Amino acid sequence: MTYHRYTTLIAIAALAVFTASGTFAQITTEDVGTDKLAQTNFKFLEISVHPRAAAQSDAMTASEFNSSAAMFYNPAAMGWMENRFSAGFGITNWIADITYNTASAAVRTNYGVFGASLLFADYGDNIIPTIAATNERGYLEYSEVGASNPEPSAMAIGLGYGVAVTDRFGVGGNAKYVFQDLGDAVISSDAETEANSTSTVAFDFGLLYRTGFRSLNLAMSVRNFARELRYVQENFELPLTFNVGVSMNMLDLTSMDPNVHALRVSLEAERPRDFSEQVKAGGEYTFRNIVSLRAGYTYPTDVQGLSFGGGLKYDTSSFGVSADYAYTAFDVFDAVHRMGVSLSF
Asked: Residues 303, 57: contact at Cβ < 8 Å?
């Protein structure tokens, strides 16, 4: 196959990313899609929680994680997990002193890879809620009417499955119980309260296709598919997202030793329920399967900027351990830091 045919195939694969949903190609200066389009809740389900993915602006749908962390992005990628067992732990220091903690584990069997995941949101204790009042300030704090400040919480507990149906095609899915408690809301000056908590079961689905041309992958995923929910008097939906992406180790087109150098580039289009389409690009350079440097960018966004990160990995014939870090700029907010460790055997 000539170099011209190589580049043609890559161009066709990249074009598929932007045309899959029929609208992803509309990226112009006149149509920067940062306006909110719909009402969603359970926003903690949209947060990227793994540093390897976040450092590449989450352009990970077509990348092979080879770990239990794939459940948070595309469960189909678990189907090619090489180790018998994988487990990971992570922490995300989000804006406004919010923290997200994650844990995941997966085991490979003769019938595919089974996994479990946990995401827990800690909203801190700096919340000072108020109710409307006719005083000079126009409000009263909860403590002034004898009510306790709410302690909101949220979590998602999931069970996942991924399988490589053939040596090129994999499928996967997650079923997760999601819960959010915003605390009791004071609705009158005599401290009458109303509960604000709800839960449901949500589903993720994914496909991953190894094209057979070098390491070129095509993939898609649907995340947070669930029924409509209700808080008191307002209905809302979960932040459903549809992603299509491509990824490839670009050094496959050279004569460089893939066991020494690798440069995987990913391109992805995302269609969220509550915002316009976004395009995400990420890159990961790895040296001798030990040290990795990563970067990514999302367009369009309102406050999120460039992402950077890196990782260290140590593997033996029977055991592996890795540590990853990611930094994401958020304009007027403090930068977001993510850290994670994983082990496998």
From this structure: no
d(CA 345, CA 329): 35
The mean pLDDT of 318-329, rounded to a whole number, is 96
Residues 214/66, Cβ–Cβ less than 8 Å: no
CB contact set of 37 (below 8 Å; sequence gap of 6+): 273, 274, 275, 276
Could you tell me the sign of the dihedral formed by the alpha carbons of 71, 74, 76, 78, in that order?
Answer: negative
pLDDT at 17 over 90: no
User: What are the C-alpha distances in Å from 65 to residues 167, 201, 261, 267?
Assistant: 16, 25, 18, 16
Question: Which residue has 């999302």 as its token pair?
Answer: 298
- Cβ neighbours around 323 below 10 Å, total: 14
Please state, rounded to an integer, the average pLDDT across all residues of the chain: 88
DSSP assignment letter at 150: P
Q: Give backbone dihedrals phi and psi of 124, rounded to 5 degrees, phi first.
A: 75, -175
Beta-sheet pairing, 169-181 with 185-186: unpaired
At 15, is the pLDDT very low, low, confident or very high (cuts 50, 70, 90)? very low
Rounded to 5°, the CA angle 162-168-172 comes to 15
Neighbouring-strand partners of residue 342: 88, 322
Cβ of 310: how many Cβ atoms within 10 Å?
Answer: 19
Cβ-in-10-Å burial (0-12, 13-18, 19+) of 297 comes to middle
* 170 C-beta neighbours (distance < 10 Å), count: 27
Query: Rounded to two decimals, what is the model's pTM?
Result: 0.86
Q: Which domains does the chain have, with CATH numbers?
A: 3-27+39-344 (2.40.160.40)
Spatial contact of 104 and 196, defined as CB atoms under 8 Å apart? no
Structure tokens at 21: 């949903």
pLDDT in tens, 187-230: 766 777 777 889 999 999 999 999 999 999 999 999 999 999 98
CA distance 283 to 247: 9
Query: What CA–CA distance (Å, rounded) separates 328 from 305?
Result: 7
- Side chain identity at 216, as an amino acid letter? L
Rounded Cα distance between 224 and 241, Å, is 7
* pLDDT tier, 8 (very low <50, low <70, confident <90, very high otherwise): very low
